[in-house]
Write a structure and sequence with these properties.
The complex is a heterodimer of chains A (about 290) and B (about 325). Chain A has about 290 residues and is mainly alpha-helical. Chain A has helices at about 1-50, 55-60, 70-105, 110-120, 125-140, 145-170, 175-180, 185-215, 220-225, 245-250, 255-290, and one strand spanning about 230. Chain B is an alpha/beta fold. The chains are: A mainly alpha (about 290), B alpha/beta (about 325). β1 of chain A pairs antiparallel with β2 (about 70-75) of chain B. Chain A: Keywords: Cell membrane, Membrane, Transmembrane, Transmembrane helix, Transport.
Amino acid sequence: MNNLFQDANRQQISGRRRNDLIWRILFLGATMFGIVALSALIITIITDGIARLNPDLFTNYPSRRASASGMKSAIVGSLYMLCLMAPISFVLGVGAAIYLEEYAPKNRFTRLIQLNISTLAGVPSIVYGILGLAIFVRTFGLERSLLSGALTMTLLVLPIIIVASQEAIRAVPRARRDASFALGATKWQTVSRSVLPSAISAIMTGVILALSRAIGETAPLIIIGAATYVAFLPESLFDTFTVMPIQIYNWIARPQEAFQDLAASGIIVLMIMLVIMNVAAIMLRNKYQKNI
Amino acid sequence: MNTRNKRFVMLTLIMVLALVVTACGGGTSSTGGEGGNAASSMTGKLDIDGSSTVYPLTEAIAEEFNRENPDVRIAVGVSGTGGGFKRFANGEIPIANASRHMKDKEKELATTNGIEPIELSVAYDGLSVIVSKDNDWVDKLTVAELKAIFEPGSKVKTWADVRAGWPNEKIKIYSPGADSGTFDYFTETINGEAQASRNDEQVTFSEDDNNLVQGVAGDKNAIGYFGFAYFEENKDKLKAVPIDNGKGAIAPTYETVQDGSYEPLSRPLFVYVDKGMLQEKPEVKAFMEFYLNTIGELAQEVGYIALPQAEMDKEIAKLK
């Protein structure tokens, strides 16, 4: 009788172990799928693009000859864009998050706003381009300028920044606020001296990740009229501009193979920029986890 | 709130600010002074937009023009022919690239806004009907056969349906997408109506001509069409089919497109300029004159075919 139980048990256990192994292999496969695809992509891009990854790429303007072509105006355009977008989206995004989390009453209206923001985070980027064209280019008369582009991109990243900042603020323990209030602090004192300092690294992580998404966007900027051939650097906020993804897209569509290799070099530069931003985000997150 | 945390936050903010400032500062340092041989003192700004097909031509011209006039700030966009015309008709840009004629509606809009468009042919493109190098049976196609293959509701399923004696293999069609001027021109010329095209499971559409090249090159039963430049760059993988329009089969080359014998698939490419701006702004006039006088030498380099000199002279006369 005893033996019988043991056998059944053993069978059950080995069955479960087999099951476990199958799941393990499935999950490993799921992980490897992405990794293999990504490394294949990176390897082809590096082998195609490494040859043209020279100073000319950074110092020359676009040219009809792939060998003389560079992406100076595009790199500078992307950096300007980042410089404009970062402060605007930080102030607006974090401000909105503070309001929604700390000040706004929890009623049907704020729930509706919340729902809208979450929905906006999933809207295709080209829609923001159309919105930007209508509002900034046409209505505000900012023309097809760097400023219009930066504001359009701000719209694109705002929902992501708001959601990320809200989560960061929500993660600050209730006790901190209570302690602050107990000492007689006002709402603003509590927010500025207790909540925000605890949440800021997580907020920064969200902001940087959102900005790195914007750096890779092409569609909305093409809609609002960023040019493709720009042989000068923007001198004011109202100047015409181009950005890296647009330049890369144009090179890929060219018939000449040399341009496609050049596009690969451009992708490497863009990728390095994104990796730097993501590493910064990870470092901030690690710091944050230690401190809470 | 501990001070360590506070200090860290400050540090992060300062770092981000520093990054932003250095990035911005780095950009401004080297404006002007580019190009070196400042031959002229002409300044001004030229915004050009429109067809992505014409873009390489205008880009080549802008590059050369900037060599002589480094202070004219030229930006060329690729909003497509329709998008470019819209901006042109609104008076936003003095020059528009176009791979088709301006439609009456677009002309009306321009006229109401006080814009007087001048159409200038700048080069030819030879739309090339291409098959894979491995396809050893297609020696030529007549315009009627092309129509049979590409027309809406086409009955052609296999190559044998095109011409008796050709293999009984399913024909695969690669076509530019509906947004491209190439598609407009081909459907209008071959099928008789712009945008009217076969659209069943045997057709693959792509907005990226390099995709079409890959598709046709890898399949000996495939046929497709695109601009001459894409054929020229992939000659080792592709074969351009000679087209017979009743005067014998003629394959697209620089010569046959230029002298007009490759027809009906040679198409002119245009640049539109506003007459008012041409007269008012010296940089617009200088740029357009430079364009028409120089494009003959540059067209072939970017994969297009120059107009015969006699015809180019007529275009130049339109600027007077």
